[in-house]
Amino acid sequence: MIEDKSDPIKKTELNLLVAFIDCCEKMGLRYYLMGGTMLGAVRHQGFIPWDDDIDVGMPRKDYEEFLSGAQTLLPDYYFVQCRKTDPELPNNIAKLRDSRTTFIEASVKDKKINHGIYIDIFPLDYYPDDPKKQKKTDRLLRLLSLRIRPTFTLPQGNKHSGIIEFGVGLAAKALSLKWPTIDDALNAREKLYKSVSYSGYLANYGGAWGKKEVVPADWYGEGAEGSFEGLPVRLPKEYDKWLTRVYGDYMLLPPEEKRVTHHYTIVIDTERPYTDYI
């Protein structure tokens, strides 16, 4: 269970996860804990103590069904956020937000979107089997990421050197000839994610670990049982292989100086809605 019962952010996110799982069960949809949340479930049976986010993944078909139908099953204060429901959202994943709260991140502080505390929902898409198509996909993803990057306001501590930032800016400007608007680039990336109808690999294209999150499709399968803060959850069938691929010796704790969260937030408030701040 949550070690610090007074941690309101973790409690809010856990409630979001409960609501998400309830929707998936009612709709007959598959999901899996992803990334650090999967690691936390296996190593800590809950949150990684120094982290405070929850990531889940869904096969594309289940993901699309969730986006289409989950809102009607949720209380009004929970918001299924995607580009269709929140057009200024500058990425290709979804979030489940608690509109009664505030979590304004530096990277999207100027966007007119719901800024409540959230959990991330990643679509899992097929990745090409053919090596030539893989290289083409990887190259196009890099170009699209460069084009989309200027829409985010990067915190100073998260920026590269001035020369690199200048080069990235020039590249994004050049790529605007192909994708005139950020929306064009986001649409192109979504199309690329969904371009392979079936293969032996599944990719979490929106994840933080790049090619490490391209794994054999059967690693997910029907999933495996796990526990997260006392809540029964689903993990990928081959969660040990997944975690080893991404983290190496994942049961080994990192050095203390690396036990930090990776969010850059301007305002966090679990008692007041984000509309009070924008």
User: What series of H and E elements makes up the topology?
Assistant: HEHEHEEEEHHHEEEEHE
Shape: globular
Please give the CATH class of the largest domain. Alpha Beta
Number of helices: 7
* Count of domains: 2
| Residue share in helix | 25-40%
Our estimate of the beta-strand percent is: 15-25%
Report the sheet with the most strands, covering strand number, pairing sense and barrel closure.
7 strands, mixed
The CATH topology name of the largest domain reads Beta Polymerase, domain 2
Q: Tell me the distance between the termini.
A: 34 Å
CATH architecture descriptor of the largest domain: 2-Layer Sandwich
Structural class: alpha+beta
Radius of gyration, whole Å: 19 Å
What is the tally of beta strands?
11
Mean pLDDT: 93
Point out poorly predicted stretches: 1-5
